[in-house]
Automatic annotation (TrEMBL):
Highest taxon of source: Bacteria
Binding site for [4Fe-4S] cluster 1: C11, C47, C81
Binding-site residues, [4Fe-4S] cluster 2: C157, C161, C164
Domain TRAM intervals: 376-438
HAMAP family in alphabetical order: tRNA_metthiotr_MiaB
Cofactors (names): [4Fe-4S] cluster
Gene: miaB
The name this protein goes by in its record: tRNA-2-methylthio-N(6)-dimethylallyladenosine synthase
Length: 438
């Protein structure tokens, strides 16, 4: 049996694409392995949202050269968002000629054919589609977890935030038909899934491209009816598209978890406008207020970029102020990274690196205070936890997630893995929670 090894960078969308690659490979008789040295096929599924992610891919590709030398039959494939950019493909062709196959995000479903061609060819095979095609249904998937599953509801993005490369690598917004989504989830539930995460670059604008348009809230109400399903999550939301109907759904759908990831990116209206985010800080804060009014204990997480071109000390202070005002449960924080081909890359007034780093550290300080406060407020609360496995650091400790998407560690028998339990939070720490099974 041939063995494959997949390394994935980037978001859940990429993770889920890798699950599809694994599904297709399994149908071709391949099995997975955890060690590159044992593999007959190595796939790198890449991300280009920031320069760091790209540099990691290049570093890791370089390390494959000796493996290929030792085993000339080894097939090395590179795919994902980076490959949708021609300058990157050209660079890989020149610098890493030992790569066997390059394909992109829009032709992932053709992978079996590409791999078959590759096995019969001595030359590097490069096939990238510039544009998205029709949505392809029925791709086999091997999921990382049995109990919780990712489900794509839409692909692509039409927002063109000026810093972001995604609209160029994932194409225009298009939604899967509700029946295809519902059937996939019903099937998953029949096979043991209790939690689904609905994926899309901007799930709030779901449904607009359908022949019979329905909106995201309608879809949620329908998914909420699926028997046997216990938890529904979704990501990512764009604040400009959060409708009162969605807020009502958050309140009314019992399976919808009390968590929303609502990327704010910046706290200054001047920067938000230059980012093309289409909302103001006032609108964002009002939205948070309305969401909290509907679901008081909801946890709120976000994405923040520091050092966007032209960001002044005053602008940055507005971001700090917004972080304090909202009181986030957690956040992904990023230093602005120039992405070739995006409008922000050509903006004057790029912020010097030292200032970006200094602001980043100040942001973390304010943020950590808020995360800590949120965690400490949970002391002695009893929360429902879905047990995913054992703790990363200690195999004798169980690890699960609350509906609010917080990780809880506690002692308990391993038979509980995959099940729900109630846990009393006894020891809230700054970045994690410890509890006791009750
Ligand atoms: N630089 C830094 N962060 C970025 N993100 C997207 N593009 C960039 C960039 N050029 C961040 C945004 C987005 C998250 C997925 O990545 O915060 O929400
Ligand atoms: Fe990028 Fe903005 Fe689309 Fe999110 S909404 S993927 S940040 S362009």
């Amino acid at each position: 049996m041939k063995k494959y090894y997949i390394e994935t960078w980037g978001c859940q969308m990429n993770e889920h694409d890798s699950e599809k690659l694994a599904g297709m490979l399994s149908n071709m008789g391949y099995t997975s392995c955890d060690n590159k040295k044992e593999a007959d096929l190595i796939i790198f599924n890449t991300c280009c949202v920031r320069e760091n992610a790209e540099l990691k891919v290049y570093g890791n590709l370089g390390q494959l050269k000796p493996l290929k030398k030792n085993n000339p039959d080894l097939i090395i494939a590179v795919c994902g968002c980076m490959m949708q950019q021609s300058h990157i493909v050209e660079y890989i062709k020149k610098k890493y000629p030992f790569v066997d196959l390059i394909f992109g995000t829009h032709n992932l479903h053709n992978f079996p054919v590409l791999l078959a061609n590759c096995r019969q060819s001595d030359n590097m095979i490069v096939e990238i589609w510039d544009r998205e095609g029709e949505i392809v249904e029925g791709i086999p998937v091997i999921r990382k977890y049995g109990i919780k599953s990712f489900v794509n509801i839409m692909y692509g993005c039409n927002n063109f935030c000026t810093y972001c490369i995604v609209p160029y690598t994932r194409g225009r917004e298009r939604s899967r038909k509700p029946d295809d989504i519902l059937n996939e989830i019903k099937n998953l539930v029949a096979n043991g899934t209790v939690e689904v995460t609905l994926l899309g670059q901007n799930v709030n604008s779901y449904g607009k491209t359908l022949d019979n348009p329905i909106d995201f809230a309608d879809l949620l109400y329908q998914i909420n009816e699926i028997e046997g399903l216990r938890r529904i999550r979704f990501m990512t939301s764009h604040p400009k598209d959060v409708s009162p109907k969605l807020i009502r759904a958050l309140k009314e759908c019992d399976k919808l978890c009390e968590h929303i990831h609502l990327p704010v990116q910046a706290g200054s209206n001047r920067v938000l406008e230059k980012m093309n985010r289409k909302y103001t800080r006032e609108k964002y804060l009002k939205l948070i207020e309305e969401i909290r009014k509907a679901v008081p204990d909801i946890s709120i997480t976000t994405d923040i970029i520091v050092g966007f071109p032209g960001e002044t000390e005053e602008d940055f202070k507005e971001t700090l102020d917004l972080v304090e005002k909202v009181g986030y449960d957690n956040a992904f924080t990023f230093i602005y990274s120039i992405r070739k081909g995006t409008p922000a890359a050509n903006m004057k007034e790029q912020v010097p690196d030292e200032i970006k780093h200094e602001r980043f550290n100040r942001l973390l300080e304010v943020l950590h205070k808020s995360v800590k406060e949120k965690n400490h407020a949970l002391k002695n609360k009893v929360l429902e936890v879905l047990i995913e496995g054992t703790s990363k650091n200690d195999d004798n400790i169980l690890m699960g997630r609350t509906r609010t998407n917080k990780v809880v560690n506690f002692k308990g028998p391993k038979e509980l893995i995959g099940k729900f339990a109630h846990v009393k939070i006894t020891e809230p720490k700054n970045f994690s929670l410890y509890g006791e099974l009750i």
